[in-house]
Amino acid sequence: MDDPGGDSGLAERQHRQRRLQDAALLLPLVGAFFLISPVILIFRDSSGGEGVPAVVVYLFSVWLGLIVAAALLSRSFLRQDTHEDG
Amino acid sequence: MGKRILIVEDEPHIAESLSFILDRAGYDVAALDDGAQALDQIRKSSPDLIILDVMLPNRSGFDILRDLRAGGPHAGLPVLMLTAKGQARDRSAAEDLGASRFMTKPFSNAEILDTVSELMAGG
Amino acid sequence: MLSWNALIWVCILYVSFLFLIAFWAERRAARGALGWLRSPVVYTLSISVYCTAWTFYGAVGSAARNGLEFVAIYTGPTLVFIGWWWVLRKLVRIGRVQRTTSIADLISSRYGKSPALGVAVTLLAVIATTPYIALQLQSLTLSFSAFSASVEQAEQIPTAGVTAFWIAAGLALFTILFGTRNVDANERHHGVVTAIAVEAVVKLVALLSVGIFVVWGVSSGPADAFSGITAEALRTDEIFGPRWVAITFLSASAIICLPRMFQVTVVENVDERHLATASWAFPLYLFLMCLFVLPIAIAGQTLLPEGANPDLYVLSVPLAEGRNTLALLAFLGGFSSATSMVIVAAIALSTMVSNHIVMPLWLATRQDDTKTSGDVRSVLLLSRRISIGGMLLLGYLYFRFTGGTGALASIGLIAFAGVAQVLPGLIGGIFWRGATKAGALSGLAAGFIVWAYTLFLPSFEGSLLVSAAAIAEGPFGISALRPQALFGLSGFDPLVHSLFWSMAVNIFAFMIVSVLTVPGQLERIQGAQFVDVFRMSEDGPGVVVQRSATSEDLFTLAQRILGPNHAHRLFSAAAMEQGKNSGLPDPTDGFIQQLERELAGSVGAASAHAMVSQIAGGGTVSVTDLMQIADETAQIMTYSQRLERQSRELEETARQLRLANTRLTEISAQKDAFLSQVSHELRTPMTSVRSFAEILRDTPDLDAAHTRRFLKIIHDESERLTRLLDEILDLSFLESGRMSWRRDEVSLTEVIDRALASTEGLRDGTNIVIHRDRASEDVIVTADFDRLAQVFINLLSNAVKYGKADAPEIRIAVTRFGGKVHVDVSDNGPGIPMHDSERVFEKFARLGEITLAGGAGLGLPISREIIHNLGGSLDLLPVPVGATFRVTLPVSETASLSARA
């Protein structure tokens, strides 16, 4: 954009904000899908053998993934906030 | 017998001065101060030239001119219009209606005489 | 090796350390230098009060017994926090805008400041939290005994009951010292929050240390640590069913509804942006807390003898391995978990108890007293201190009563299911405008009863209210009413069973009753404020909550609803009635009733009643809150009125603009016409002057008579020019107000005589008849004789000029009217059309095509200007025949007096 402070810049920012909000609303639904839906049962029996059971790896990986996603979202929100304040 | 001139002018002093100079120049001059009677008077006396003021009581000079030019035996009479307003709008209105000449008050006597003789010669 | 006494000393030292931190933080907060105390990190760490001893010890115990089930207790809150945009963000905003002090306050406030709901939520919270506090006491006591049993002789150790009692007493003291230092407007406790944050770090470090020791110290890495674990031990076949979903739901609702979680998440929040950080940082904290739970559980099962309490593995594994320092750290971690939970829960509950139960009672018993604010504050503080003590005493009694039986985890889940009954009313309240107080109360009550019957009471295994037989066979043998298999719905986990029924009943009762009942005015206002919190305007912060009703408060309230003037009149009238010459009236019953009636006229009876009765006692809703409602109502009312008025004003303005525009166009056209007119009027005499001057110049032989006549004409026309210029100057002088005026006693008769004489020349040669009544003209006015005569000369000239009729008449009529005199000058000519009645007074106005001989149309404007300057008026009267101008003048007072005498 040639003119980031102009209308196009504003529209861009509003669009970004809306996408961020949608992502924030979507994230817990995605989390719920992976954590409490029957999807979890896929990993139920694959725990045989050596090492950390697959279901444990699955649960903690999903968990960590959600945390990382939330952290990225939160960073975007806070950055946008400071942009608006400044 | 000199050519006849009808002066239609409501200001008595102006009519008097016009009459005086035209009379001395050899014309046969009659004066009238009411716009409503102008056309009748023209028909009655059939002058050779009319000197017509714009602002007249009862009937404006423009209306008289329009009716005069509209037809009849006197439609082609030379008409010298006088106005005290002197606005370009009045001048163009007068020309549109077919005034032969248009002069703004105050005029110079010589100018009046020149114009009248010019119109008499042309007409 | 630590002796029992040494352990006590460690605890005391640790508590003192926390004490110092809390004290230091309070000092900084008091100086306003919060600095990093306000950071999102501290906020996140304080939220970790969710992880109690139940987590610290119980998660490992749960993992040992139920495999992966413990994870669901942490994934629920994780979902809530990563989905903060849905619920938490709104709660935090509402909490700040409404200055919410607790979850009971929030719900009560949402449903029209309902005292009943406040009490209900408070009672539910107390009942659900008491076992939870007992749980902390139990785990602390257990950890004491586990730790010291390994090093000391049994007889030196006090019994569990005594230990628990002293722990409870110590915690009560700490909580009272830091939880009730002030009655802060937003109920924030910086000292406590900071101490809690430090404890959060301690418990995390402790659990991580034990975990790392187990994985890399005892085992040789994660693979080794998990070796030997089977799918059966993880219970993967059983747990990923309804119970898994139920526990996730319960923990998710607990993170919102638990009083202590509400306290740290909403009440103690100082910046909404901190929530964005906590949205990932708090799940990360939970993640780390859970990371080593399974390895520790596995290590406990392999290292420790059969029958060792799994709930103490965190402590007993390092002890069994001879790592005393690590064990001490683990002990402090557990100690931190338990103490932080108890402290925050006690603060949250004491706030609820004092605000929703003690204060209403206190206000009810002291209805007649004048309530000073200091009075209320001290009562509040005292009631909170007593409540804190009471909560810990209840917890202690519960611990003694149940004898410390039952696994930790089950007590925690029972408490979760209890507080989850608040959820429908809470979520419905902030998202659904139609939710009503009756609905919320019904749902809460129904859910609570079902929860108590199906889960809480059976947990006592027959020792409280419901007997063991009733649990097994149903009360009175009615099997359909078996607490754990209602209506024969058997085969379910009791927790799932209870949650299903209680939530179903709760939600249906809430929604159906909400639909069937009509919310009160206050409820509707509050409902709108909560549901649309992001769209509502915010109030400025920093208003101190004042819980006393004084005349000032009532006056402020009245001012905001009735407006300052009305309120002032009302209050001063009441003060007069009470025999006071100044100041505000006493808030007597009579006066309050009167005020309520007045307010009802503005906001409706229900709201007025709620406001006045709450401000005057009987309720605990703060005056500030009431002011806000009042403002809202007034705003809504004035806003709609203003809109109406504005559209009316806009229409009126547009109309006036259109008029003005038409007028301007007219004036502009008039100005053009006038300039043309002036030009004409000036050129006409000039033409004569020039023409005759030329004749005189160019005609040397002119006779003497002509010469004389022409010179006279030149002279007359010059005078005419002068007169015209004089008139223009005259008018501009009159209008600029620079004219000097004489003020004499002037006789109207003389003025009219003069005017008639002056216009005699004009009437020469006409047959105009003048009618006048000299007797009625005998009036004295204060005026400038010449100027007044000028006016009548003008009027008479106009009448002569324009009053053209076959038998023209001019009539001069003088009438006295009060202190004024009318002089009417009428002609019987064609008259002036009504639409020109004002235009005739405008400068240079020409009526129709009439040429104003001898003037430029300035006569009437000048006349009017003169009469205005004499204190009178000049108007054109609407008459059927001719034109009548009326001059109205004030009669000279001295003259009329002398006339009377």
> What topology, given as strand order, has the largest sheet of chain B?
2-1-3-4-5
- Any idea what the shape of chain A is? elongated
Structural class of chain B: alpha/beta
Low-confidence stretches of chain A: 1-6
CATH architecture of chain B: 3-Layer(aba) Sandwich
Number of helices of chain B: 5
The largest chain-to-chain contact, stated as pair and per-chain residue counts, equals: A-C, 38 and 39 residues
Transmembrane segments (chain A): 23-43, 55-73
Keywords (chain A): Membrane, Transmembrane, Transmembrane helix
Protein name (chain B): Response regulator
Keywords (chain B): DNA-binding, Phosphoprotein, Transcription, Transcription regulation, Two-component regulatory system
Task: Offer a few descriptive terms.
heterotrimer; B: 123 residues; alpha/beta; Rossmann fold; 5 strands; C: 901 residues; mainly alpha; Sodium/glucose cotransporter; Helix Hairpins; five-stranded mixed beta sheet; two-stranded antiparallel sheet; 37 helices; 67% helix; disordered C terminus
Polypeptide structure, described:
- The complex is a heterotrimer of chains A (86), B (123) and C (901).
- Chain A is mainly α and 86 residues long.
- Chain A has helices at 7-36, 54-85.
- In chain A, helix 1 (7-36) runs antiparallel to helix 2 (54-85).
- The mean pLDDT of chain B is 87.
- Chain C has 4 domains: 9-364 and 388-405, Up-down Bundle (Sodium/glucose cotransporter); 551-621, no CATH class; 637-735, Signal transduction histidine kinase, dimerisation/phosphotransfer (DHp) domain (Helix Hairpins), CATH 1.10.287.130; 741-900, Heat Shock Protein 90 (2-Layer Sandwich), CATH 3.30.565.10.
- Helix content of chain C is 67%, strand content 5%.
- In chain C, the strands form 2 sheets. Chain C has a 5-stranded mixed beta sheet with strand order 2-4-5-7-6.
- Chain C is elongated, with a radius of gyration of 48 Å.
- The chains are: A mainly alpha (86), B alpha/beta (123), C mainly alpha (901).
- Chains A and C meet through helix 1 and helix 2 of A and helix 5, helix 11, helix 14 and helix 16 of C.
- Chain A: Keywords: Membrane, Transmembrane, Transmembrane helix.
- Chain A: The chain crosses the membrane at residues 23-43, 55-73.
How is this structure best summarized?
The complex is a heterotrimer of chains A (86), B (123) and C (901). Chain B has 123 residues and is of the alpha/beta class.
